């Protein structure tokens, strides 16, 4: 037991997490309750899959605000609870979580590594370097190498491998922006079509590394977008969170996304050509024939026309301008290449596994689902109020502990010292585990959890009382201290295990069937119940065995709590040996 305590305490100080993480009601913050609302006739859209997808989207939005300890979880069938700790702009948070997700298909104009580009280096050099160093070696993996093709599977488009072929990616950013400005269709390249149609013919052509100077006729809006792209650092969570705030569908924009290796990349994207509402259905599924995971998309009638138009234009371009970016809330979720004209059905294939394919399918579906959220309630707890509630909870716990100690001292006298030491060990273990579980599993100590810890004081004390009473029963039966301690333990052990099992079962059921703050109460109650078993078995029992050998307890001192006289034990009757009477014969007269 001592080794375990030392190890846990050492781990607590080694990680630097010396205090439990506090919940919103104790540390202060904002709690937002959202209720899902479906369009008439599409009530089935409010289901577990779509709600979990919404939770993921809202969580990314909140994290984009720079919040590291936000909690987003479903409550019941149609509610989502968002807990945002103090230090966050509550109005901005409400705006982020209450807005319906915006999903668009945008043509890719320029792509580069995610870090900020040095001012002295031209954007063309950065893009060309990215094309050489990254794209050429990873032609069969990653989002840029995902392959878009016809959904009926009759014709498979070959993937255009970026290599040494001529590419417009090497042009200056302002030059790349001219085409989408003049032609909103998304065609943004001046490369010859012959070179685009055959990568084999163009593979031997030398790749140009000299970028022309930025066009002097670029508008102020385009110049601002170029500067934003150059200075954008996609590795910064703060910068990523602000990208989608002012992006208009009809305007070019910059965005961030991850490649297959998980590295951030930054994009300049043209105006949105297809919206999320143009998707009728999307899902990730396993292609049995090819043995690979793909994402299939079915478009609405109007969406099919839009998608056919943009893919017809993109299929004639070179990388990266033959890619369309799937953008959700300002983040590029995928950027597959287009190698042929697509229409009502399409699929995205690439380096997918089951999780990534289903996740992308859910993202695409959510952009088309008739789901919106109404803000039911917003509760803001100030740090001062949270501190008051924490102090009130600690005072209540101290009062409960003091009452238990007074009862133990009055009734059990010397045995109370054993109970108090056991309570202190249990409290130390509980504290260290709560401190370690905060960063490990996101456990936050809220007010119901404090109540669970207070209730646990009584549960733990009850185990000691059961054991002490069993020992007293053995002494009343006439046994001395050491045999009484050993004979009482099997009977007390069974009672303690049954009692703690019932308490733990109740806590487990409560944790499974509830959500939100009530789970904090159930988790704390279950944790302290398990610790009660550990403390009684590995601390209280061994300590009692050791103290039974001392004169104070073993001799039944009046203040030990095990005095045979106070327990009503009567001393055994001392019987004297009976003397035999020898009969004497009467004398004869």
Automatic annotation (TrEMBL):
Regions crossing the membrane: 390-410, 417-441, 447-468, 496-515, 521-539
Annotated Polar residues bias: 158-171
Domain SecDF P1 head subdomain stretches: 267-370
Segments forming domain Protein translocase subunit SecDF P1: 51-108
Entry's localization field: Cell membrane
Family: Belongs to the SecD/SecF family. SecD subfamily.
Quaternary data: Forms a complex with SecF. Part of the essential Sec protein translocation apparatus which comprises SecA, SecYEG and auxiliary proteins SecDF. Other proteins may also be involved.
Name of protein: Protein translocase subunit SecD
Organism, scientific name: Streptomyces katsurahamanus
């Amino acid at each position: 037991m001592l080794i375990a305590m030392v190890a846990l305490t050492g781990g607590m100080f080694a990680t630097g997490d010396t205090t439990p993480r506090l919940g919103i009601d104790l540390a202060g913050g904002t709690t937002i309750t959202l209720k899902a609302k479906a369009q008439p006739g599409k009530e089935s859209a409010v289901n577990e899959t779509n709600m979990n997808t919404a939770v993921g989207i809202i969580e990314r939005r909140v994290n984009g605000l720079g919040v590291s300890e936000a909690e987003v979880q479903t409550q019941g069938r149609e509610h989502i609870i968002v807990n945002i700790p103090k230090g966050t702009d509550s109005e901005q948070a409400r705006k982020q979580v209450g807005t319906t997700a915006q999903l668009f298909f945008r043509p890719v104009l320029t792509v580069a590594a995610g870090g900020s580009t040095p001012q002295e280096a031209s954007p063309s050099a950065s893009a060309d370097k990215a094309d050489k160093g990254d794209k050429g070696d990873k032609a069969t993996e990653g989002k840029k190498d995902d392959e878009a093709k016809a959904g009926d599977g009759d014709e498979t488009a070959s993937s255009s491998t970026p290599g040494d072929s001529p590419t417009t990616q090497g042009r200056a950013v302002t030059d790349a922006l001219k085409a989408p400005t003049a032609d909103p269709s998304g065609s943004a390249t001046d490369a010859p079509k012959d070179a685009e149609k055959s990568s084999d013919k163009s593979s031997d052509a030398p790749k140009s590394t000299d970028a022309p100077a930025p066009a002097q006729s670029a508008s102020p809006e385009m110049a601002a977008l170029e500067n934003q792209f150059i200075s954008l650092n996609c590795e910064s969570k703060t910068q990523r969170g602000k990208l989608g705030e002012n992006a208009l569908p009809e305007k070019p924009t910059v965005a961030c996304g991850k490649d297959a290796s998980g590295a951030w990349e930054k994009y300049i994207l043209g105006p949105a050509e297809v919206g999320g509402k143009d998707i009728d259905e999307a899902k990730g599924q396993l292609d049995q024939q090819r043995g690979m995971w793909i994402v299939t998309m079915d478009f609405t009638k109007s969406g099919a026309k839009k998608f056919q138009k943009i893919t017809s234009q993109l299929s004639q371009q070179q990388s990266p301008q033959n890619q369309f970016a799937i953008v959700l809330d300002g983040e590029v979720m995928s950027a597959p290449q287009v190698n042929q004209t697509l229409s009502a059905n399409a699929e995205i294939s690439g380096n997918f596994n089951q999780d990534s394919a289903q996740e992308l399918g859910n993202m695409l579906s959510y952009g088309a689902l008739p789901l919106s959220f109404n803000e039911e309630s917003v509760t803001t707890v100030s740090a001062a109020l949270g501190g008051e509630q924490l102090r009130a909870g600690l005072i209540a716990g101290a009062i409960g502990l003091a009452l238990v100690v007074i009862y133990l001292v009055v009734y059990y006298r010397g045995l109370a010292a054993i109970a108090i030491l056991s309570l202190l060990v249990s409290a130390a273990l509980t504290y260290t585990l709560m401190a370690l579980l905060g960063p490990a599993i996101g456990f936050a100590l809220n007010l119901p959890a404090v109540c669970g810890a207070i209730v646990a004081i009584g549960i733990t004390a009850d185990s000691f009382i059961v054991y002490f009473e069993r020992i007293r029963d053995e002494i009343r039966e006439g046994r001395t201290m050491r045999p009484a301690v050993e004979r009482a333990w099997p009977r007390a052990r069974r009672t303690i295990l049954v009692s703690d099992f019932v308490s733990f079962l109740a806590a487990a059921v409560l944790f499974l069937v509830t959500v939100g703050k009530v789970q904090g109460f159930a988790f704390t109650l279950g944790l302290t119940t398990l610790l009660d078993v550990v403390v009684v078995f590995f601390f209280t029992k061994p300590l009692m065995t050791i103290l039974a050998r001392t004169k104070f307890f073993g001799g039944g001192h009046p203040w030990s709590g095990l005095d045979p006289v106070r327990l009503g034990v009567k001393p055994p009757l001392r019987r004297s040996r009976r003397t035999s009477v020898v009969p004497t014969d009467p004398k004869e007269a």
